[in-house]
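User: Show me a protein chain along with its predicted structure.
Assistant: Here is one chain, sequence first, then structure tokens.
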Amino acid sequence: MQYFMKNLFIGMSNNKTLQTMAQKWGYRIVADQFIAGTNLEDALETVRTLNAKGFSCTVDHLGEFVTEKKVSIQAKEKIIQFIHCINEEQLDCHISLKLTQLGLDISEEFCLHLMKEILDVASKYQIFINIDTEDYVHYHATFRILNELLLDYNYVGTVIQSYYYHAEVLMEQLKDVRLRIVKGAYKESAEVAYQQKDEIDAQFLHLSKKRLKEGPFTSIATHDHHMIRSLLQYIEEENIDKNKVEFQMLYGFREELQEKLKNEGYRFTVYLPYGEDWFGYFMRRLAERPRNMELIIKNQLYENNKLKKKPILLTASTIGVLAFVWRSFKKK
């Protein structure tokens, strides 16, 4: 059932009709707990609030698979605008971005040019830029661009998706680069990636422990409390410096666990997505962990563990959106 739900949500994430409808009607119904608004000021306010509570942030202006240069240029300008805001307010925040938003599907040369414009500004302010890895179709182009950038820039890193068979080799090649370790959120074939949860979990733990033991500063990104418990034990047993590691989770997910880790003295960064193009991101988060749907329904029904006075309309709206999504996906 979990495998079916994962495929369902990934299929939804790529459906252009659903994306258009979601942008028009769905944000307030299902996503506002997990997306920090649709504009820059909303996102900045969320960063300020989280910083005041002792959390660091990484901000992602949502968008991907762009095929028009003007759209990629606009995305680049919004990213640079946010970098200026981080510097002006001295926020504890850095940037995460996707190369397909910046024209990777248009041309590598064009994408590289936009990335250099971003890094020129970020480097001046010493603000880190994290390149989020995407599906395997874009794997080789992504790392060609990253390696080119690493020749001239220090404040850039990327993500290791541990479900790839080649992930350990890649991690070794990037041993001096700041990395985020994740399980992987895209549907990939058995030719390139592990398919079973137990295999992916084992690989995630192996790579995380290896990196913590041998590598520089590393971000561990997971909501899985079993993985986190195992890594905390390893950090303690191996006497690993807490300053070499941070934990990351998505905005709105497992907030009690985020607070717990922060209170135990670990650096904690909240991955903060914002923007109008939120639907694909949101569906992949459900694909990554279908049980996240429980959080959405609970949020619709309850407030401070008490039943909301008028949950019926909210619930009907949620169910209506999901039912339409389901029917649309079935027709494809």
